[in-house]
Write the structure tokens for this entry.
Amino acid sequence: WTGVIKPGATDQRMRVEDIFATLEGVAKLERRAPAPSQNLWSGLLEGEIVAREPFYIANVPEHLAELNQACPSCIRVSKRRTALIADEWKLVTVQQLNVERSRYSRARSAFLYHLSVDPYEEKNVAESETDILRKMSEQLRVAEAAQRKRDQLPPSSEPVAR
């Protein structure tokens, strides 16, 4: 867009939801985009990185136990994955599903990546960056609780089947 945006690339982290608020920013419209959408137009215009709020991503198969019981010959999906991206860090957790009891285990595997150093998420630094892991785990717990409240989902240690 000659004369408006500087040519080049950006390292701005963006998600699909941000397109709504960003297009409103381009068109100088009143903000109507959904809450998780963030206007990144000023950063794209100036070629700078816009600070982001941490964001939560979840793979929560609500009817997992029911699906596993209804289709014994199907491939069993047995893991619940959640992630939190904050600043230069990404925390991914994995919980196993106990299919017989229809519950997720309390134990989680944690994978922590320093995205500015390791953009391809090849080196898990959870054991060496314990302070960041602790802080992000708490942020993830809060985000999960808020999501469950919005979606009225059971806590991760509660039965999955309804």
